[in-house]
Structure formats: C-alpha cells, structure tokens
Automatic annotation (TrEMBL):
<feature type="active site" description="Nucleophile">
    <location>
        <position position="337"/>
    </location>
</feature>
<keyword id="KW-0732">Signal</keyword>
<dbReference type="GO" id="GO:0071555">
    <property type="term" value="P:cell wall organization"/>
</dbReference>
<dbReference type="GO" id="GO:0005576">
    <property type="term" value="C:extracellular region"/>
</dbReference>
<dbReference type="InterPro" id="IPR005490">
    <property type="entry name" value="LD_TPept_cat_dom"/>
</dbReference>
<dbReference type="GO" id="GO:0071972">
    <property type="term" value="F:peptidoglycan L,D-transpeptidase activity"/>
</dbReference>
<keyword id="KW-0133">Cell shape</keyword>
<protein>
    <submittedName>
        <fullName>Lipoprotein-anchoring transpeptidase ErfK/SrfK</fullName>
    </submittedName>
</protein>
<dbReference type="GO" id="GO:0008360">
    <property type="term" value="P:regulation of cell shape"/>
</dbReference>
<keyword id="KW-0573">Peptidoglycan synthesis</keyword>
<keyword id="KW-0961">Cell wall biogenesis/degradation</keyword>
<dbReference type="InterPro" id="IPR038063">
    <property type="entry name" value="Transpep_catalytic_dom"/>
</dbReference>
<feature type="region of interest" description="Disordered">
    <location>
        <begin position="31"/>
        <end position="63"/>
    </location>
</feature>
<dbReference type="GO" id="GO:0016746">
    <property type="term" value="F:acyltransferase activity"/>
</dbReference>
<dbReference type="Pfam" id="PF17964">
    <property type="entry name" value="Big_10"/>
</dbReference>
<dbReference type="InterPro" id="IPR041280">
    <property type="entry name" value="Big_10"/>
</dbReference>
<dbReference type="InterPro" id="IPR050979">
    <property type="entry name" value="LD-transpeptidase"/>
</dbReference>
Length: 389
C-alpha cells in the first residue's frame, strides 16, 4: 500500500507535463511564445554584480573581491585605489568573472570600472566603490624558527605579537603546520602575545617543517589587525637529548638513541631554592662562546664564562666553570647552572643545537612553568588546555 501511495503523485505529474507540452507546441507553431502583445520575453540583457556591494564600508582587505557578469562577458575590468593604482586581478577564461589576486590595503577607497558585453553587443557598466576597514592598530608578529634553520627535537614553533591578541581563536584557525613525517602537535597560548606549537613527543629527527601564518587582515580584537602574513620552512636535525642527573653529579648526552658523552657536573646548591637546579625539561635557547654573568645579590658581576649554552630565562646555563673544578662530579655548589670542566663544556657546546631538550632529574624540586622556554614543562593535557579552539 505504501508503494501505491508513492507512485500516485508521479502518475499525476505525467499528465500535467503532457498538458504543458501541448500548450508549448501550439505556441511554437506561430513563433516565440508571448511575441504578440505584452512584454517581450526574449533574452535578458547583460548585467553585473560586484562583491563587496557598492558603497560597502569596513571591508576586510582579504575578503573575496570579485565581479560576476550575467548574460555577457566582462571587458576592461579595473579596480583602483585613490592614488590610481590598479589592483592585480584575474579574468576567467569565459569572461564571466574577475577576481582580485592581491590583498587590498587598510583604510582605502576603491573604485570599479569596466563593462559587460552581451551577445547582441549591448553593454552594462561595472561601477561603484567601497572602503576597507580602518584599524585602530596594525600589529606586527614574528615567527621562530626562521627559514632554513636546523633545530633540535624539542624546538617549538613560536609566533609573537607586538600587542595583545583578544580574538585568539580567529588567529589560531588561520595557522597551519605541515610536516614531512607524521607528527601530532597542537597550538597553545602561553600569554596574550605568544602562541606556540609543539609536538606531543619530541620531533622525529630530520623532519622538514613548513609554517603558514596568513595573519594580514585578521581581526585581533580591540581594533587591532594583522600587519603581514608569515611563513617559515626549517628542518629538525639529529635527535640529541641531554640527561642532566643532579643527584648523580653527571650530565649524559644521548644522540640518536646512543650515549655519546657522560660528563661530571656540578649543579645548583640544594640548600637554597633560588640557586637550586630544578627538575623539568628545558630547551637550548642560545649559545655563546663567552657569556657575561651577573648576580649582585649573590656577590658577582661581569663574570666571564666560556662555552655557555642557555637553557632557561630563569638564568640556567650549561657552561665551563674551572673555578668550581674541585666540586664538579662530586658536589652541587653552583648558582643553578650546570658546571662542566672547560674541555667538556667546549665539546658539548660544539655539538649542541638550538632546540635540543635538556632533561633535568634527581633534584627533588620542579621548575615552575613560567620561564621561557617552558613548553616542555607542561604535560600534553596541560598544553592542549591552552588552545583557543
């Protein structure tokens, strides 16, 4: 019975269509339908539509900017700013559409010109104009690592902004990371002016990474807009992990899964929390053959130390300290740094990469996750909770 009900409308439709065909056949016999009396129902003339609409204000410069022709083909389409500079664009092969192929400027008036030509030679003008958004501020951003760098397996991708970002979700949606090897990772906002991407685990060695951050035209909130698009292509180097064992007074270097060095070391004084070397995964941030160190609170200024590898903005380095040689390998007496002999510090320095992880264990206290670079001080769950999406 259900089948019968579903077929009934179809049968009625056949009858209606047949009636319509008969009416159409009678009209065709004497020429175009409706050709006598009333309005002519021939082909409509050419027309044009523009996007954004004419008179629009506050247009985002990265919104689609295009012209579409109906019943004709576009000719001589041009979009110019107030200085008469023409916007680059592309006309479709069939002449039906024209679209801008470069971003527009902020706070700028644009005017259309051109025409659409119909099949009978009749024309319609392309005209009108619009004004792009006027930001309260245009915010600069930077990306690190930069192009062509080779970095360690703990290196985060970091985008920093000159001003706070309110609309974090809009920014994060625009960001894209592509890798030559399968890598699970996520973006996290460390503060209002910095968003980092790190993998769940250390990067696979020799991964090629491409970052695309099309930030121009993005509304950051509070009247701020992105100043420019950013890109970067870099490579992850060999895998090297430092195992800094505070309780054993040793620093081991593991490269591609094999231990290549095991140095005696001296770490921070355990009796003073300000000087203790705290546990956590640090990241190599910088390398300097000579570093000038100051800590007036503890009685030293302008002290030169060689082969200095910075691992935290809290003040921790791996460096030589021949003045502390008697304690290296037996007692922890530094002001928080990892002290090595000159020969060992030089050897380690020469093989270290920015972005190498340094895993400090055996001290009994944790480094709070607030000193750059602290990306790896957070668990994966904590990291994902800092996403804006």
């Amino acid at each position: 019975m259900n089948g019968s009900l579903m077929r009934s409308p179809g049968g009625a439709l056949v009858v209606v269509l047949a009636a319509l065909l008969l009416v159409s056949g009678c009209a065709g016999a004497s020429g175009r339908a409706g050709s006598t009396g009333g309005d002519d129902s021939g082909d409509a003339g050419p027309s044009v539509s523009v996007e954004p609409g004419s008179g629009a204000n506050g247009v985002n410069p990265k919104d689609p900017i295009k012209v579409a022709a109906e019943n004709g083909k576009l000719r001589d389409v041009s979009l110019v700013n107030g200085d008469g500079e023409q916007v680059e664009g592309e006309l479709a092969e069939d002449g039906s559409t024209w679209k801008a192929t470069e971003p527009l400027g902020y706070d700028t008036e644009y005017e259309w010109s051109g025409k659409v030509v119909g099949s009978e030679g009749d024309t319609a003008p392309v005209r009108g104009g619009f004004h792009t958004v006027s930001p309260r501020s245009v915010v600069r951003a930077t990306v690190n690592p930069i192009d062509d760098k080779t970095v360690g397996v703990a290196m985060p991708i970091s985008i920093k902004f000159d001003s706070p970002v309110r609309n974090k979700a809009a920014v994060q949606r625009a960001l894209d990371v592509r890798t030559s090897k399968s890598v699970e990772g996520a973006w996290a906002w460390l503060n209002d002016k910095q968003v980092d991407w790190r993998p769940k685990e250390y990067w696979p060695a020799h991964t090629r990474v491409s970052v695309d951050a099309p930030l121009y035209g993005i509304d950051y909130g509070g009247g701020g807009y992105g100043k420019a698009d950013l890109t970067s292509e870099f490579e992850i180097g060999r895998s090297q992990v430092v195992k800094a064992e505070v309780d054993k007074h040793r620093m081991r270097v593991v490269r591609d899964g094999a231990e290549i060095a095991n140095y005696p070391a001296s770490y921070g004084k355990p009796s003073n929390p300000d000087l203790h070397t705290h546990e956590g995964t640090y990241t190599v941030m910088a390398k300097h053959p000579v570093e000038i160190m100051d800590n007036p609170k503890y009685g030293y200024t302008d002290v030169e130390k060689k082969w200095a590898v910075r691992i935290s903005n809290h003040g921790e380095f791996i460096h030589e300290n021949e003045n502390n040689r008697a304690n290296i390998g037996s007692r922890n007496t530094s002001h928080g740094c990892v002290n090595l002999t000159n020969a060992d510090a030089k050897e380690y320095f020469q093989g270290a990469l920015i972005g190498d992880p340094v895993e400090v264990t055996g001290s009994g206290t944790r480094m709070p996750p607030k000193y750059a670079v602290y990306d790896w001080m957070l668990s994966w769950q904590q990291w994902k909770q800092k996403s804006a999406l």
